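User: tokens in, sequence out, please.
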């Protein structure tokens, strides 16, 4: 790995706080921090991850950390930072990489980026679902490899959305966005499950609240849209795949750790389910020799759910604004409520 130094940017003499930014960010976000007059910024000026050891060595005395979902802000980092640490702002809606319980104990405020990435993430979920169900990557590979000999009646046939049942695990904002976008494709029925029913959203979409086993058994498409918590970790396991239809398409754009990947591999290889589309895996990046990558019926994307230019810039700005509000003891534009 090329060596990258953490560089201070645009220091203000009067700046009372120090902020650690763990990655190269769009200029608009850095400008918000560096022109605030509030903080001195140390940045890991690279597109690659700041090594954990570097994060630990930069942490002592820091007042705020602007991090990414690939940085583990664990107890060790919080201990290294010490009592100055007031705010952590992550460039993601998910915050499973942050030791939330520890933050709560230490009165450290946490900000994230909900809402602004809903459309982009719902969009990629639909794109991945269609690409997986209609075997787009597999078919395109056949064109390049010379496997396209002629038009054949049953060649490269996949599953369509018309008259289908779509099961959404977690009817939050992204889950709703997915259902809204899929509806015009002629879906017959939406099912959803989660901690509790969401009648307002569900009525609007015509979605039925069902237990997870029912959703798995009845859905043609099973779409994971919930967040990673101790309850959802490993939730999609061998038993879950066994309940799904042999023609089922499984899509995950949330977090890889909700899925038992060995069980997924077996389910795909043995024809227990038809195909899977994943934007998230464990680990990330998925090693290039991982068994899932050897399967034609598994599409894996490199965690690009929110990756539109506009969305990532908006997320970066929101992340910087969360830092400043936290340092000023003001309401953050998007704060994770630590009950
Ligand atoms: C992406 O996965 C996010 O949590 O924003």
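Assistant: Sequence out:
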């Amino acid at each position: 790995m090329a060596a990258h130094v953490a560089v201070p940017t645009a220091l203000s003499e009067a700046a009372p706080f120090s902020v650690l930014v763990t990655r190269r960010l769009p200029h608009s976000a850095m400008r918000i921090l560096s022109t605030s007059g509030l903080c001195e910024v140390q940045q890991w000026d690279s597109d690659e991850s700041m090594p954990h050891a570097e994060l630990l060595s930069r942490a002592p005395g820091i007042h705020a950390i602007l991090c990414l979902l690939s940085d583990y802000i664990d107890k060790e980092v919080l201990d290294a930072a010490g009592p100055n640490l007031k705010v952590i702002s992550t460039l993601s809606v998910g915050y499973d990489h942050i030791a939330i319980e520890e933050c709560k104990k230490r009165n450290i405020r946490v900000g994230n980026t909900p809402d602004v990435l809903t459309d982009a993430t719902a969009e990629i979920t639909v794109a991945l679902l269609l690409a997986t169900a209609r075997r787009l990557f597999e078919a395109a590979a056949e064109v390049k490899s010379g496997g396209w000999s002629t038009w054949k009646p049953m060649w490269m046939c996949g599953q369509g959305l018309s008259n289908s049942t779509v099961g959404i695990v977690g009817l939050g904002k992204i889950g709703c966005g997915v259902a809204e976008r899929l509806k015009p494709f002629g879906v017959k029925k939406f099912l959803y499950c989660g901690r509790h029913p969401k009648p307002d959203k569900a009525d609007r979409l015509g979605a039925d609240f069902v237990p997870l086993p029912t959703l798995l058994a009845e859905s043609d498409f099973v779409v994971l849209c919930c967040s990673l918590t101790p309850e959802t970790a490993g939730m999609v396991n061998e038993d879950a795949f066994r309940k799904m239809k042999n023609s089922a398409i499984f899509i995950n754009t949330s977090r890889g750790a909700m899925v038992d990947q060995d069980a997924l591999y077996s389910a795909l290889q043995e024809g227990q389910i038809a195909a899977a589309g994943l934007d998230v895996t464990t680990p990330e990046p998925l090693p290039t020799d991982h068994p899932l990558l050897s399967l034609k019926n598994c599409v894996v994307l490199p965690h690009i759910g929110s990756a539109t230019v506009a969305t990532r810039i908006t997320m970066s700005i929101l992340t910087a604004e969360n830092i400043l509000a936290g340092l000023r003891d003001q309401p953050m534009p998007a704060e994770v409520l630590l009950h």
